[in-house]
Amino acid sequence: MKTPERGLLLVVSGPSGSGKGTVLEALFKRRAGLFYSVSATTRAPRPGEVSGEQYYFLSKETFEQEITRGNMLEYARYCDNYYGSPRGPVEEKRAQGLDVILEIEVQGAMKVRHNCSDATLVFIMPPSIEELAKRLRGRGTESEEVVRKRLETSKAEVQTAGAYDYIVLNDEVGRAAHDVDCIITAEKLRSQRYVGGFLG
Amino acid sequence: MKTPERGLLLVVSGPSGSGKGTVLEALFKRRAGLFYSVSATTRAPRPGEVSGEQYYFLSKETFEQEITRGNMLEYARYCDNYYGSPRGPVEEKRAQGLDVILEIEVQGAMKVRHNCSDATLVFIMPPSIEELAKRLRGRGTESEEVVRKRLETSKAEVQTAGAYDYIVLNDEVGRAAHDVDCIITAEKLRSQRYVGGFLG
Question: Chain A within 8 Å of B164 (Cβ-Cβ)?
Fold first, then answer.
């Protein structure tokens, strides 16, 4: 009876050290029907990497063609390689009723908003500057100068949170994952999306 | 550290037989921090009724004064008596951080939208016409003609669901209550409402 409901596109972003990856890991454990969007890149695959798993590995020509055709929800260039979010697999999974999770950097999130008007944007907020500094330093892999630069970038990125639909404070991973879970449930109940009984 | 966050105003409505009352009962059992808004009326209290509990009992003069002052979020007149939702207690509870639930008829819900721009409107959808008819007949208190008239009204009211923010299908009370619970959690995470860490 029920038409298969088109899935959401949930963009999850936040500054380095916000813990967005950990929140998403917890979310995937508690909720079914999600699909984690795979990025495309022009960098060469490392040993063991398979196209469509870690990345879609594309030639530079193909990637640029896809940009021209409007098939990249967002992209950026780092170290002479392109990285981006291909629209095709996202729309395919949504048509199957899966909710697609796109974990990307803050700069990319605003581009997705522009290129996909019905995307839902979630900002993962670190609990405080002190905690953010602790997390960035805790990795122990970067010099104090790099950590300080990252902190400055993160502070600037936090200022963009108001442009997202939702802000989830990541002071406790389980609660933050529960919050994102509720956001998905609620967004699917928005009247514009209703295809269920009676009116469907 | 955290500013006390202003509570939501959640308007819960739906046709007769949608089961909105039962859904709200289940919601109050699973969620804290809610306040059930009490209506005002000019009808005389019945034995045992206390002003501020079942209703705020007002004189006709006071009620009309409150209308003139814009202090009624919505009101209607039945059988020569006024019934309405006073704004004062709603705003008072919201300022204390409580989420106020306003269970009202479909006609009233659209008036609240007009009079309170940050209200969140939830439509409780009966699962089907057949089930709705069964529920209305199941009460066993009304003639077939009255039941048929109610059904017609309910069908017309269902057509207004698209004007609400959210539509919750009440095919199973527990799930419907969980849905409303998630809507409240998600609405409180909307970036416009954010007053928490970092940006707060």
Answer: yes
Q: What is the per-residue pLDDT across A141-185, written as a single tens digit (0 to 9) for each? A: 788 898 899 899 999 999 999 999 999 999 999 999 999 999 999
Which of B182, B187, B191 is nearest residue A164 as measured by Cβ atoms?
Answer: B191
Cα separation, B38 vs B53, in Å, equals 7
Q: What are phi and psi of A47, to 5 degrees?
A: -55, 130
Task: For chain B, list the domains and their CATH numbers.
Answer: 9-37+98-193 (3.40.50.300)
CA angle A195-B109-B137, nearest 5°?
A: 70
How many alpha carbons fall within 13 Å on the CB side of residue A99? 19
B191·A129 Cβ contact <8 A: no
Which residue, chain included where needed, has tokens 């020509």? A61
Q: What is the largest distance, in Å, between two alpha-carbon atoms of chain B?
A: 61
- ipTM metric: 0.90
pTM, 2 dp: 0.91
Q: In this structure, is the dihedral angle defined by the CA atoms of residues B87, B89, B95 and B97, taken in order, positive or negative?
A: negative
